[in-house]
Amino acid sequence: MQEEEEGLMKSISPAIFIISGDLALAQRCFEELAAFGGHYRTMIVSTAEQARKRIGHSSPAALFLDESAIHIEHAGETLESAVALLTEMAPVVVAANPERQAGLAFLITSGAVDFVARTNEFLPLVAGMLDRRMRMAERATGMVQFSNDDLSGDFGEILRHEVNNPLTGILGNTELLLARRDRLPPAAVERLETIAGLAVRLRETVRRLSNAWDEHQEPARARPA
Questions:
Q1: Neighbour tally for 98: CB within 10 Å
Q2: 168 Cβ contact list (under 8 Å, min separation 6)
Q3: Contacts of 158 (CB under 8 A, 6+ apart)
Q4: Interior CA angle at 39 toward 34 and 43, to 5°?
Q5: Can you give the residue range of the structural domain that contains 207?
Q6: Chosen domain end from 141, 158, 180
Q7: 15 and 56 housed in the same domain
């Protein structure tokens, strides 16, 4: 019975995609993640394109994109464009050379992307960030049971996580299209600008709501137990 329950938990547990052109590195990342003890299904693919094709069948809760996956991508794809597309599906932890962080600043600031400098022993940090993202996803989907106190404390973070990630994907891809506005008809450019404007408004509304919730919870947190 216990083995059946463990098998069921593994089958319904959220998935992590490890996207790396370096198979040995991907395996080490898998081992680092296993050390955290979460019941996570882990899938390893070598390119972001392969991940996008398979994501529809797996509904991952977090993605790890190693910069080595971009070197063998099809012509025209960059780290920035690959990450922007992936954020439509799940939060992304990116490991890349430190100078690549500036190009991802918008996505990092939005909360949809975590960045790890690809230097020295960076995989334990990657695994820790993935584990944190997975636990947030479990809470948001109700797989982990909360007490009322836990739910009160985490609601603002869950709201930001579950709404901001899709919004960031919408904004990132809209900006990629608008960067080629000279190739688009004026009507399409106008619609894209409308989409971007509405997404920004919605993101600001989420920010105000989550901040108001956090402020509402401050007296309860400060109250002696």
A1: 11
A2: 87, 107, 110, 111, 112, 113, 203
A3: 136, 139, 140
A4: 70
A5: 148-222
A6: 141
A7: yes
Residue where a domain terminates, one of 84, 117, 141? 141
Tokens standing for residue 30: 């898998």
Query: pLDDT digit of tens for each residue in the chain (225 aa)?
Result: 434 434 433 444 568 999 999 999 999 999 998 888 767 788 899 988 888 888 766 678 899 999 988 865 455 678 888 888 888 888 899 999 999 998 888 788 777 899 999 998 999 999 999 988 888 777 665 544 444 554 455 666 666 666 777 777 788 778 888 888 888 888 888 888 888 888 888 877 777 777 777 777 666 555 555
Whether residues 19 and 121 share a domain: the answer is yes
Given phi > 0 = left and psi -120 to 50 = alpha, else beta, which region is 97? beta
Residue type, 51: A
Contact 181, 196 (CB under 8 A): no
